[in-house]
Design brief:
The complex is a heterodimer of chains A (about 325) and B (about 525). Chain A is mainly alpha-helical and about 325 residues long. Chain A contains 13 helices and 2 strands. In chain A, a hairpin with a 3-residue loop joins strand 1 and strand 2. In chain B, about 45% of the residues are buried. Helices cover about 30% and strands about 25% of the residues of chain B. The chains are: A mainly alpha (about 325), B alpha/beta (about 525).
């Protein structure tokens, strides 16, 4: 294949790999901007992935699956908010508890309901998955390499959730910087006392933020099990939630830089997949393990070396009480 | 200034406000009446119930019983929003500002108007221009709050309240963070506000401020109002007695110093912070037996780093610290080595460096000295000896409650500080380094702590006193060093030191033309 085609396909794969990261990173951003540590996005995503696949498999509708995914992730978010905001619990402990609970509960329920060794049935029926949306003339345009192929592969041919994720980036930035809710959200993560004395409910704001992050995680999890693959398997998030948090930190808790970081991580991932089995001159075949480790090595390097001064919201992780 | 109209209802009236927290009776039937267009003082020791009362007035906490009337109308406040709507504004001691927001964003927070903030910001911008004109309250609206000096941040807080239509302005310890010149500016501003019919409530423990700006003053003790008087009919001494419930000495009584041999010598000391920025820049001075040397300065001008370097907590980048031990040997480099040389340290930040709040008093009372043979039996601590030592210290320094097993977090600030003082002074040091000895300490305990420091001096020890309280520096010191920007920019005697002079030097103005101040090293 000529290199142009490779690059286009690589970028298209990047976009697909980036989608759950972008959704989860935005989920983390809303939660953390309000001052609640977002470690729970891993568990919320995994829970949503299971619920979406299970409902889609039984009902035959990907849309019902999406509804179930969002509902479960939001319920888990509610649980986290209840523990962290209402009862001022330790946010790391509450989030990890949810993550561990979901990691066990998903496969256990899958085993009980479907008896397939902790998986959900393959989603291969019509309408059970989110399929590609082909833009007009995409097939025809494929013939003309530039810009046709770019159009057909990079812009067209993704499923709805991919487009949604991309659209949510400018939307989140708009909400955060142009709306009353955004102003208050940014304030409550920096100095909840200022928000409280201004007569705004800290509790309510934080609940809203955590619930938003639940909804976004629901979409991300649904994507994993009903769009990117065909069904739920044990531990299918595989640390994507944590990777998304890393991207969010690398993006300094801002939507656009976070999006950029997600794309970067996804690109290394897509590159790693493509490099498998490729023979490099001089080096010979690159070991698979080395390639698969690439995204994680990059994460460590970026976070350790190049983030510069990533300044977290000042009040993050601190349960609010009036008495301080 | 508007004369309070006797026919008009008081701006704020409280009737029988009562509040309990568990077993603590924080407010006992407090009644209070404040006339419109006046500045009213509210004083009391820590824990006297001032803050609780103001939190109730601001809708932060509900009262158990009692009535609040604003401009004659009974009100019930469920939240600060209700209080704001009734025209009450509050400037908290710790500013309620979002540091990485602009001034304008901070001011509109909570009163943005519609869902989008742009129109609200525009409206606020023009309203603030009008406020700036009417009251002379200028602030750069688009600057980040974190880049503003403290005085301006406070002004932002006042503007925030006025923008919300506050008619009654409560200021909680507003001068704690200001240099004298900023205090003067603030008071002029408050005078102007009162002149235009606003009502100001000044909550403070500084008697001098009460005397300077208020027209009436209410004194609280143990949750109850013990006096309400016209300011011109009272004296600071009288107010202090009412606050504490017994006679107190406001001015430390001491004899002139008889300085002896040099005990601590510092030459060309340079200390850098974690980012490599020099915080102490080539400081030299010496400390003699039988004197208290005060270090004055606005917080953050290198005093803390100086103190920590002397105590061995920070390693200086260059320079020399010599403690006159046997043969004047150079000082060891860590805190324990310094302690062995007779250098004791009462740290500025009591809770972070002075005590372990979750540990019992008896264990805190030996921290740093816990390896001494008298507290140990083999590899184990000698529990009886530790407890006995703590009991003796508690008795000697009037620490209450005198229970060695109680965690230090259960003591008041003043009693914690007395415990730390007891630990350090009873170790019989040659040199005592003290940072902010009376921060968060009640007036009664302040008197006690000051007497201890003077007593130590009279016993022929040397004391280095770092404090942001100018009264304390002037009252206790035999010599005053002024630090600004990491350097000692001048030395004054307490006789020639006035608040104005110190304030100017603290702001970085070197040597006044005449003033007879000497500069160490002739710089």
């Amino acid at each position: 294949m000529e290199s142009y085609t490779i690059i286009v396909l690589l970028l298209a794969a990047t976009l697909r790999v980036a989608t759950p990261l972008v959704l989860a990173a935005l989920a983390g951003l809303f939660s953390e901007r309000s001052g609640v540590i977002a470690l729970g996005i891993e568990g919320m995503m995994l829970g949503a992935a299971f619920a979406a696949a299970a409902v889609s498999a039984t009902s035959g509708s990907a849309w019902l699956g999406l509804g179930a995914g969002v509902a479960v992730a939001t319920a888990l978010a509610l649980l986290i908010a209840f523990a962290c905001v209402t009862h001022r619990g330790n946010q790391v402990v509450a989030a990890m508890a949810v993550n561990i609970m979901v990691a066990g509960l998903g496969p256990a329920l899958a085993l009980a309901w479907f008896n397939l060794g902790g998986q959900t049935p393959q989603l291969d029926g019509a309408g059970q998955r989110f399929g590609a949306v082909l833009w007009p003339w995409a097939q025809a345009a494929r013939e003309a390499p530039f810009p046709g192929l770019l159009y057909a592969e990079l812009l067209s041919g993704h499923n709805l959730i991919v487009y949604l994720a991309v659209a949510l980036v400018p939307f989140s930035a708009w909400v955060l910087y142009r709306t009353r809710f955004g102003l208050r959200l940014r304030a409550v993560g920096e100095n909840p006392h200022a928000v409280d004395t201004a007569g705004i409910s800290v509790t309510r704001l934080r609940y809203e933020a955590v619930l938003i992050s639940g909804v976004l995680c629901g979409v991300a999890g649904t994507y994993l099990s009903t769009a990117a693959s065909a069904g739920f398997v044990r531990d299918m998030t595989a640390g994507k939630g944590y990777l998304a948090l890393a991207a969010m930190i690398f993006g300094k808790w801002k939507p656009w830089p976070t999006f950029g970081a997600c794309l970067l991580f996804a690109f290394t991932d897509a590159l790693a997949t493509r490099l498998q089995g490729v023979t490099l001159p001089l080096e010979g075949v690159v070991p698979v393990q080395l390639i698969l480790a690439l995204p994680y090595v990059l994460t460590v390097l970026l976070l350790a070396g190049f983030v510069g001064q990533a300044v977290a919201p000042a009040a993050i992780g601190v349960p609010y009480s009036k008495e301080k | 200034m508007n004369l309070p109209d006797s026919a008009a209802p008081p701006a704020l009236e409280l009737r029988g406000i009562d509040k309990r927290f568990g077993t603590v009776h924080a407010n006992r039937g407090v009644s209070l009446s404040i006339a419109r267009g006046t500045i009213h003082g509210l004083i009391g020791e820590n824990g006297a119930g001032k803050s609780t009362l103001m939190n109730i007035v601001y809708g932060f906490q509900p009262a158990d019983s009692g009535e609040i009337r604003v401009q004659g109308i009974p009100r019930v406040f469920g939240s600060p929003q209700d209080a704001i709507a009734a025209g009450i504004g509050m400037v908290h001691q710790h500013f309620m500002l979002v540091e990485n927001f602009t001034v304008l964003e901070n001011i509109v927070l909570g009163v943005e108007g519609r869902r989008l903030i742009a129109p609200g910001l525009a409206r606020a911008r023009s309203a603030l221009a009008a406020l700036a004109r009417d009251y002379g309250l200028e602030v750069p609206l688009d600057a980040l709050v974190s880049t503003l000096p403290v005085g301006l941040q406070q002004r932002v807080e006042i503007l925030k309240a006025l923008y919300r239509g506050a008619e009654i302005l409560i200021l909680d310890e507003p001068t704690a963070v200001l240099v004298p010149q900023e205090v003067e500016q603030l008071f002029r501003m408050l005078g102007r506000l009162a002149g235009q019919g606003k009502t100001v409530i000044l909550v403070t423990h500084k008697l001098k401020e009460i005397m300077a700006v208020t027209s009436r003053v209410t004194v609280m003790r143990q949750g109850a109002v013990v006096a309400e008087v016209a300011t011109r009919e009272t004296t600071p001494r009288d107010l202090a007695e009412k606050m504490v419930g017994r006679a107190v000495l406001l001015r430390v009584e001491k004899t002139p110093a008889t300085a002896g041999a040099e005990l601590l010598a510092v030459r060309d000391l340079e200390v850098v912070d974690a980012f490599g920025v020099a915080r102490v820049k080539g400081v030299s001075f010496s400390l003699h037996a039988g004197e208290i040397v005060g270090v004055a300065g606005v917080a953050g001008n290198g005093q803390s780093e100086l103190l920590e370097a002397l105590a061995g907590i920070r390693v200086p980048r260059r320079g020399e610290i010599r403690v006159a031990a046997a043969g004047g040997s150079p000082a060891g480099s860590d805190p324990r080595a310094r302690r062995r040389l007779g250098l004791a340290h009462v740290p500025e930040d009591r809770l972070r460096m002075g005590v372990v709040a979750a540990f019992s008093a008896e264990h805190n009372a030996i921290l740093g000295y816990h390896t001494l043979p008298e507290y140990n039996r083999g590899v184990l601590l000698d529990g009886d000896a530790v407890r006995g030592a703590c009991e003796r210290k508690m008795a000697g320094y009037d620490v209450r409650p005198a229970n060695p097993r109680l965690p230090v977090s259960a003591f008041s600030g003043g009693n914690q500080q007395k415990l730390v003082m007891a630990r350090e002074i009873e170790s019989d040091p040659r040199v005592l380094l003290v940072g902010q000895p009376t921060r968060g300490v009640d007036i009664g305990a302040i008197e006690f702590i000051h007497r201890q420091l003077v007593g130590l001096r009279d016993a022929g020890k040397a004391v280095l006193l770092v404090s942001v309280e100018l009264d304390e520096i002037i009252g206790l010191s035999d010599r005053i060093l002024v630090m600004a920007g990491g350097e000692i920019i001048g030395e004054l005697s307490p006789q020639e030191a006035t608040e104005e002079k110190l304030g100017l030097m603290m702001a970085g103005v070197r040597e006044m033309a005449e003033g007879g101040s000497r500069n160490p090293e002739g710089r």
